Here is the input.
Amino acid sequence: MDKQTTTALLREHFFPLLKGQGFARNGDVLRRADDPVVHVVEVVHQPRRGVFRIDVGVHLTLLGDISRHVIDPTKIREADCAWRSSIIPGFRNNHDPDFVYGSTAEQAQESVSFLVSEWDRQSSAFFGRLATWPQDFHEAARAAVVDPPHPAHLLTWARVAALAGDLELARRCAEISLPSVPERATGLRADLEAIVNDPSTAVPQLR
Here is the structure.
C-alpha cells in the first residue's frame, strides 16, 4: 500500500491511543510535556522504500538545544531530543525500526495493529524511566556512571547531574568519560575537562 493508506490507519487506531496518554498531535509529531520534561513521538515515512517508523524521544528543556539555545517544547522534534529510540517491530531482528506499508490493505492494517499492540510495552520501557524531574533523571545519571555510555552521552548526564544539584556526580561523569574520548573530539574533551575542574560549568547557560 502507500503512505496515504497507512496515515489513515494511524489516525484511526494509533493517534487516539497517544491522545489518551496525554500527547498532543501536530502533523506527524506528537508531544507530551510536563515541564521541564518533554516526550516526543514522530512518525517518519519513507514511501520509496514502502516503510514507516515510529521514533521516540525524551528531552529536558533545561538542557536547551544543541547550540545551548532555549528550546520551545511545542516545536521540538525527535531529532532534537537528548534521548532517542524507535519502536521495534521485531519481524527481522531486534534493531530494525521499519514497519512495512504492505502490498494490500490487510497487510497495512496488520502493521498498524502490531504497532498498537506493542506500543504500551515498548513506550513504557522508554518513557517510563525518564518521566519525572529530577528523580528519574538523577537516578539514570547515577546508573550511567556504573555502566558508562559513549563520552558524549556521559557529558549529557553530567549536565543532568549538575542541573539536579549533584555536582560531585557531574564531575564523576566527566572523569570516567575522558579516557574514552576520541582523539579528534577536541571540543568534547574540553567540555569534560572543564567540568572536572569546575563541575558548576556543567549547568547549561542558555541563550
